[in-house]
From TrEMBL:
It is a single-pass type I membrane protein; Single-pass membrane protein. GO terms for biological process: endoplasmic reticulum to Golgi vesicle-mediated transport. Keywords: Disulfide bond, Glycoprotein, Golgi apparatus, Lectin, Membrane, Metal-binding, Signal, Transmembrane, Transmembrane helix. It comes from the Eukaryota. This is L-type lectin-like domain-containing protein. The chain crosses the membrane at residues 246-270. Pfam families: Lectin_leg-like. It comes from Macrostomum lignano. The keyword rRNA-binding does not apply. Residues 1-205 form the L-type lectin-like domain. One of its GO terms (molecular function) is D-mannose binding. It is found in: Endomembrane system; Golgi apparatus membrane.
């Protein structure tokens, strides 16, 4: 019932979507459409790597239209301008323009196929909401819960090894159709991490108080939408590609320092030789 692609490797007890090396994309997705109106997905995952400060890019959960959205693209392994819901676990801060959160960062985006994800702004111009979550390089289980009940999206984490769900955010008035599919993808760029998927559990939820205005609605024809989103802010063009700005600056400074030291050494050697030549004439 599941398929996979890209750099994904299937092991006996986990699925590695990307290895800890540059420029990889991997994904797994369910081939059976979701007919449930209200559901919860619990994702057991692991993000880890050898780098202490520079790592990326992240892993994402998807509920998307398989007819127009493909698991191969620049948005954490998903094509851009997807149609459906994405819950994005972003480990690298591109930080083009101001925002007030740290990374790793979990956010949600609902798209009808018209919005482009902006990596330079970490998707903040199109996110519904988000929270900081320190899920990388943990030595215990890290889990994510995505609940969609009565047109409300609820995201929670269990990353402190306490077996307790901690709310991340809740977004009301989110419209999602049925007959989309679940999937998980990950991506590395110039920075990297291992992105592992250990399990995906799906539950049908029975709402205590179903919404009356949904009675008689054909849920397959609903257009993905959400009433709330972050206010837009100006985009500032960056000369550095996503995931490279800090690294390029660091390398540039390093090479400049090496070049300066080399010039100083060469200058000192030249000066010493000139002094020796002058002494020969006395």
């Amino acid at each position: 019932h599941w398929d996979f692609g890209g750099s994904t490797v299937i092991a006996s007890d986990f699925i590695r979507l990307t290895p800890d090396s540059q420029s990889h994309r991997g994904a797994v997705w369910c081939k059976i459409p979701v007919r449930m109106r209200h559901w919860e997905v619990q994702m057991h995952f692991r993000v880890h790597g050898s780098s202490g400060n520079l790592f990326g890019d992240g892993i994402a959960f998807w509920y998307i239209d398989p007819a127009v959205s493909k698991f191969n693209g620049p948005v954490f392994g998903m094509q851009d301008k997807f149609r459906g819901l994405g819950v994005l676990l972003d480990t690298y801060s591109n930080h083009n323009g101001p925002h007030s959160h740290d990374h790793p960062y979990i956010s949600a985006m609902v798209n009808n196929g018209s919005l482009a994800y902006d990596h330079d702004r970490d998707g903040t111009h199109s996110q519904l909401d988000g929270c900081t979550a320190r899920f990388r390089n943990r030595d215990h289980d890290t889990l994510l819960s995505i609940r969609y009940v009565n047109n409300a999206l609820l995201v929670a984490t269990d990353i402190e090894n306490k077996q307790i769900w901690q709310p991340c955010f809740r977004v009301p008035n989110v419209k999602l159709p049925t007959h989309f599919v679940f999937g998980v993808s990950a991506m590395t760029g110039d920075l990297s991490d291992n992105h592992d998927l250990l399990s995906v559990k799906v539950y049908e939820i029975e709402p205590k108080e179903p919404l009356e205005d949904n009675i008689g609605v054909d849920y397959r024809t609903i257009e993905p939408s959400a009433d709330s989103a972050e206010p837009p802010r100006p985009h500032v063009d960056s000369q550095a590609d996503s995931g490279w700005s800090f690294l390029r600056i660091f390398l540039l400074v390093l090479f400049c320092a090496i070049g300066l030291v080399t010039l100083l050494v060469l200058g000192l050697v030249y000066h010493t030789r000139q002094q020796r030549k002058k002494k020969r004439f006395y």
